[in-house]
Amino acid sequence: MVRLYTRGGDQGMTGVIGGRVPKDSVRVEAYGTVDEVNSFLGLAIAQLDDEKFADLKKDLLTIQHELFDCGADLSLVMKEEKKEDDGTPAAPKYTYRVTAEMVQRLESWIDRYHAEAPEIRRFILPGGSPASAYLHVCRVLTRRAERRVVTLAKEEPINLEVRRYLNRLSDFFFAVARCANAREGVPDVEYARSGEVFR
After folding, report:
1. Cα–Cα distance between 193 and 74 in angstroms, integer?
2. Residue 187 falls in which region: left (phi positive, over 0), alpha (psi -120 to 50) or beta
3. What's the half-sphere exposure (Cβ side, CA atoms, 13 Å) at 139?
4. How many helices (H) and strands (E) does the chain have?
5. What CATH number is given to the structural domain containing 102?
6. CA 102/CA 147 separation, integer angstroms
7. Which residue has the higher pLDDT, 179 or 199?
8. pLDDT at 1
9. What is the mean pLDDT of the segment spanning 125-149?
10. Which range of residues forms the domain containing residue 56?
11. Residue 190 lies in a domain
12. Which residues belong to any copy of the Cobalamin adenosyltransferase-like domain (predicted)?
């Protein structure tokens, strides 16, 4: 049986693709926050009725796998580019997992789920049905993950498609949180002091 503990991190370092880094590094903070999103997403999925939300649960499971892809890309430490004997750059040994096509697919999902919810005119408060509340938690955690990735990108090279993916993903969670309320027949709660900001 494989042991769950390795003792490798007892000195405050952790393994990433390409080496080891401090556990409080910006890189670990970035992919660790993505992992938080994934954990809360699992909680949100558990709140969804299998029949009423079969399509959404399928899409959310896809996103859980893609969040692992985000974490893998973010855990890559780019070392100095190696050269072949003739001086040309060596072929990369790692292919990024998060792609522009994944971002585009998220956009199509946003449009589809957004169309199910009532027209929005004012800011709304997170909540309503339990599923919607958890999806709003996923939304704000995704925003935090995006901020961590923006910070990392200022310091080290990363797959910039991860940053784009997280930006769209927070919009997706907003759309599906409202869709969840609509399917449950629970109205969104508008922020009482909001003017009409969406036209």
Report:
1. 39
2. beta
3. 19
4. 5, 4
5. 1.20.1200.10
6. 20
7. 179
8. 81
9. 96
10. 20-77+98-185
11. no
12. 4-179
Q: What's the distance, CA 51 to chain centroid?
A: 25
Q: Rounded CA gap, 144 and 150, in Å? A: 10
Tokens of 53: 């939300």
Residue 152: which pLDDT band, with cuts at 50, 70 and 90? very high
User: Has residue 148 been placed in a domain?
Assistant: yes
Query: What is the chain's percent helix, strand, coil content, to nearest 5?
Result: 55, 10, 40
One-letter amino acid identity for 13?
Answer: M
Q: Compute the distance between CA of residue 148 and CA of residue 163 in angstroms, rounded to an integer.
A: 10
C-alpha 148: how far from chain center: 12
pLDDT at residue 44 above 80? yes
Q: Per-residue pLDDT for 13 more than 60? A: no
Determine the Cα–Cα distance for residues 165 and 190; give it in Å rounded to an integer: 28
Which pLDDT band holds residue 101 (cuts at 50, 70, 90)? very high
